[in-house]
Amino acid sequence: MSTSQKDDVEAGSDLLYPLMQESPNLRWAFIRKVYSILTLQLLATIGFAAMVANVRPVADFFGATWFGMIIYFVSIILVSTTVLCMLSVYRDKHPLNFILLGIFTLTFGFAFGVLAAFTSGRIIIETSIATTVVVVCLTVYTFWAAKRGQDFFFLVPFVLSIVVILIIFTVFQIFFPMGRMFDVLCSGLSVILFCAYIIFHTAMLIERDSYDDYIWASITLYLDVLNVFLNLLSIFGRRN
């Protein structure tokens, strides 16, 4: 099929929303850019995490000593927060925005590398497979529903309700520890929460008015995927 025929097929049959007025080619280009960046982020995270996990002295220092753990948590919070603030200012400055995005991604790659060093490889693989299936299914469903005019704003009160419930559960768990099953319940609610976030953020990606915020769009989905992975890892880890 020629390029012009392919564009005609996209323009004619792949409208993302029934009321869309513009040519869908621009929207598809934006979406492809976002998912390309997201894919590179996830691959970089996996690669850097594997490298950190295999350097045992580094993993042992940051994961098995109090001093290292303090540096670990403080540095991750400070670096990720600082980079996000800088990205909010320099999101349109090339190539600085991609450099900052790379630093942000490698920061989480380092965090996951230390985590993976103290987690069973089988559990990591199980969690990775489950996360991939969940994310792919939710993404396909969202695009399928979007083409039929589905509005996902109904998820907002649902998401807010789960956030409030999780905050209450966390407070109770701090002051009145309720055991492993309670932790699994909180992790399960968190998985549901971030699954809803993936659907909502994907729908917002499709409906987005600006084509310049691909950095923020990719970061949002990236954090949703990482949170699904972390909470599934918590469930699988406690199960074993």
UniProtKB/TrEMBL annotation:
Keyword Transmembrane: yes
Annotated source species: Erythranthe guttata (Yellow monkey flower)
Annotated protein name in UniProt: Uncharacterized protein
GO biological process, one term: endoplasmic reticulum unfolded protein response
Subcellular location: Membrane
GO molecular function, one term: calcium channel activity
Superkingdom of source: Eukaryota
Similarity comment: family membership: Belongs to the BI1 family.
Ranges in a coiled coil: none
Keywords: Membrane, Transmembrane, Transmembrane helix
Keyword Transmembrane found: yes
Entry GO terms, CC: membrane
Membrane-spanning intervals of the chain: 34-55, 67-90, 96-116, 123-146, 152-172, 184-203, 215-236
InterPro entries, alphabetized: Bax_inhibitor_1-related
Pfam families per UniProt: Bax1-I (PF01027)
Primary site of residence: membrane
Membrane topology per record: Multi-pass membrane protein
